[in-house]
Amino acid sequence: MTLFIGRKCEIYGTLIIGSNIKLFGPSKIGLNTYLDDFVTVGYPIRSKLKEIIRNSVNQSLDELLDELSEGSSIGEGCIIRRNSIIYERVNIGRGVELGHNVVIREDTTVENSCKIGTDTIIDGYVHIKSDTVIQSNVYIPPKVEIGSRVFIAPHVVFTNDRYPPSKRIVKTIVEDDVIIGANSTIVAGIIIGKGAVIAAGSVVIKSVEPYTVVAGIPAKPIMNRDEYEKRKQMYESEYYFPLK
Length: 244
Hints:
Elements: E1 3-5, E2 10-11, E3 15-17, E4 21-23, E5 28-29, E6 33-35, E7 40-43, H1 46-55, H2 61-68, E8 73-74, E9 79-80, E10 85-87, E11 91-92, E12 97-98, E13 103-104, E14 109-110, E15 115-116, E16 121-122, E17 127-128, E18 133-134, E19 139-140, E20 144-146, E21 151-152, E22 157-158, E23 172-174, E24 179-180, E25 185-186, E26 191-192, E27 197-198, E28 203-204, E29 212-215, E30 220-224, H3 225-237
Parallel strand pairs: 1-4, 2-5, 3-6, 4-7, 5-8, 6-9, 7-10, 8-11, 9-12, 10-13, 11-14, 12-15, 13-16, 14-17, 15-18, 16-19, 17-20, 18-21, 20-23, 21-24, 22-25, 23-26, 24-27, 25-28, 27-29
Antiparallel strand pairs: 29-30
């Protein structure tokens, strides 16, 4: 088992840990957290890696990364599955679960009880509030804010630049209780209002009013959330197949 725990790292209570784990900088790992094989916590940002190249220091790489890292914090009762990488200056709350191959870049906060699926990339400077579920292969760039109890289906892509590659990066806000269907694209600089629903495959280029269901390219309103919930209840009660 190859294990590197930095000299400033703090581990609170029991830690279930696999092989080839790297814990850099003053990272903090909470009680009863599970770190699977090949997990890295506190990986330094790009500019610090370039500093290593410039200085060409004759020292082991793990020791160098440990010195450069500002560490990250993982709360108690988390599950971090194998091959996931958490950069420095990341705050992960209690009871958070990550799938395999998840990347969470610097200055990101993931609040309590969130679930983030396999191969998802959170590209830094993102805030995700509690009880949100993000499924597999989702891309979230810097300056995206996601509320509580949001559901994001697989292969959703957020953007942060309307005319890429430009010098202006803009934020996108997803308010509480939003549902975003699979393969949707969320164009930068909008607000998706509380309780809104984005249908699968939509391209959302304008802000969405609260409790509104939108669909299409570009996405347009098709019903309200109450109607969506009624249709959902009917769907759940019907057992015939194929669906009409």
